[in-house]
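Figure 2 data, in text form.
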Amino acid sequence: MAAAPDCRLYLITPPLSGADLDAFAPRFAEALVASGAASALARVARGAEGDAKRIVARLVALAQPLDVATLVENDPRLAARAGADGAHVDGAGEALADALASLHPERIVGAGALALRDDAMVAGERGVDYVMFGEPRPDGAQPPLAETLERVGWWAEIFETPCVAYAAALDAVAPLREAGADFIALSEAVWRAPSPADAAAKARALIARG
């Protein structure tokens, strides 16, 4: 399977609280610039719902001038209230249907946590803007890279809906790109690095070399 010709990065924030925001915002901005990311997923920490709009709006303000689409995790209403570009929803069930009904076509709706091939196909049939494979499971376990490569290759060969592949480490970026991913999602591989901007730049270079 040939690599997607225009593969781009997709940054996923750690779960953020209001107290995290001032320290995280400059790191986020630097990583966006270094990565050349196409999009970013804003995650709000459990218990921080009261600060959610402020958190997302701050990230949107940083991403928008860079032409980076900002999505919100599992909260279509927050996406609209905070001026985000869309929402990322877990699963292919009613929550996804509701997000599509409330946000499409003005805003982006993506689907992740698609455990089965059938789930991914249902999401695609419902008209999502992308599907995501390989992200950590609800218990925190990371799917094996070989499993994600297989799923990405299968999807890229058959379907036109873009595919996002989650890379748990930077050394997974090139293989996922070669499998046919349209976007490579990075989270801890960037934010836990000594320099998130350097890690993001390295990921960008790995894609470019492909």
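Caption note: The chain has one domain: 8-209.
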